[in-house]
Amino acid sequence: MALGRVLIVDDEENIRKLVRITLAKAGYDVVEAEDGERGIAAVRSGDNPLMLDVIICDLNMPKINGMAAIKFFRKQFPSVPVVVLTGHPTTEGANELFKQGIVEYLVKPVDPQKLIGAVGKAVSEHVLFKDQFSA
């Protein structure tokens, strides 16, 4: 049984592959989307968004950028934690995203242990949030 289900939204195929392999080896089920538009479509379509435990999202992507996708994810699915994974970090951007409720802000290339730790933290927060409503 998987530790949780993670959606990775990133336009860089090699990053998605690295994240998928790292998290799969750690025991997570990983779903991929190559941009914000496809990430939003993935949570709207056949995959039940309540089945997602974490969303990992890049910021600079074509079609729908990460800021817009994260805003959508936070508004539509506020119980699903979001982790940012970016190659272009800024203090202002990080501060704004933390105000929107992201769990972690990671910088590419990310250390695999930091990635696993951030996802584990996010999954545990999601489980705690869901437990509040299951009583």
Helix content estimate: 40-55%
Helix/strand structural class: alpha/beta
Taken as a percent bin, the fraction of beta residues is 15-25%
**CATH H-tier superfamily:** Response regulator
Strand order of the largest sheet: 2-1-3-4-5
Structure write-up:
The structure is a single chain. The protein has a five-stranded parallel β-sheet with strand order 2-1-3-4-5, with helices on both faces. It is globular and about 35 Å long. The longest helix is centred in the C-terminal third of the chain and has 22 residues, at 112-133. With 135 residues, it is an alpha/beta fold. It has one domain (12-110): Rossmann fold. It has helices spanning 13-26, 36-44, 66-76, 91-99, 112-133, and strands at residues 5-9, 29-33, 54-57, 82-86, 104-107. Strand 3, helix 3 (66-76) and strand 4 form a beta-alpha-beta unit.
List the helices and strands and how they pair.
Blueprint: E1 5-9, H1 13-26, E2 29-33, H2 36-44, E3 54-57, H3 66-76, E4 82-86, H4 91-99, E5 104-107, H5 112-133
Parallel strand pairs: 1-2, 1-3, 3-4, 4-5
Features of the shown structure:
single chain, 135 residues, alpha/beta, Rossmann fold, five-stranded parallel sheet, 5 helices, 48% helix, disordered C terminus
Could you give a quick summary of the protein structure above?
The protein has a single domain (12-110), classed as Response regulator (Rossmann fold). It contains 5 helices and 5 strands, in the order βαβαβαβαβα. It has helices at 13-26, 36-44, 66-76, 91-99, 112-133, and strands at 5-9, 29-33, 54-57, 82-86, 104-107.
